[in-house]
Amino acid sequence: MTRSPGAEAVETIEARLEDAGVVPVVELPAAELAVPLADALVAGGLSCVEITFRTPAAREGLAAIREAHPGILLGAGTVLDEEQVEAALEAGADFAVAPGTTPEIVRAAHERGLPMLPGTCTPSDVERARRLGLRLLKFFPAEPIGGAAYLKALCGPYRDVRFVPTGSITPATLIDYLAIPQVVACGGSWMVKPELLRSKEWGRVTELAAEAADLASSAR
Asked: Is pLDDT of 68 > 60?
């Protein structure tokens, strides 16, 4: 059995994710955009953000957000190896997220006390994660694999597991996911699309963040 971070730390992350309802999932085009992005999200009522390691700007962007917004719930996404686990920790991330469940990466995160949400989308994935001591999981790719109806069916046998669905979720489908009791929050990128960030449309990001926060609040 993998040694996990303290239960209190994981419960804190879970509670803060549930409070947020929506996790903006960001492919950061440039590190200098990180703080204005976080400013815009917080102004819209979303005090949580996941910066993915899909771009070279991720590490610097995570660190900049942590310095500018010490209280924000900060996730490091698309964590694919131990080096990125270390980078997430050094940058001050509160938790890590991966697209799949790789035992070595989960162990690397947990040995360092970093809560991790590995990706799952099948019963076998969920059982693999449970054997690693995990009960808070990413569900990915949410819409392509079958959407809220599929996730609701997947929840049936696994009553002790909770999920953060991510993958092509939109405002139109958000409420369907949040209506599932085992869903903690949903990851989404519609309010942080790279083109919005490149063009520095911070007012629009704030508007979309506020709409997402209101939708999440109405679904609880």
From this structure: yes
